[in-house]
Amino acid sequence: MAGLMSANSSRAASGLMNHAFDGGEFHSLVGNLSSADEAMWQTPLPGSLRTIGEIALHVGSSKVMYENYAFGSATLSWEDPAVEPWPPQEAPIVDAIRWLR
Question: Are 13 and 65 in contact (CB under 8 A)?
Fold first, then answer.
């Protein structure tokens, strides 16, 4: 019974995470990124040194690394092209959002 509860809890948590990541325009990361234009994507945020594009790339890179270490071969490094397909300041908006999904 404990294994079943654990599997159900894991599925529920996974569903909530997926929804927060790409579950609509208002409450999800991808939904909010989709409303950014090229100028917003490349301009550092007020009081920050990072752009929206750099933050999005960081989130996506972390997603790839965590998945690889939790469920995969645990062999990726931060320099791996699968983890960071573009230099942070060069992530193209449309391609980066597609990659995040």
Answer: no
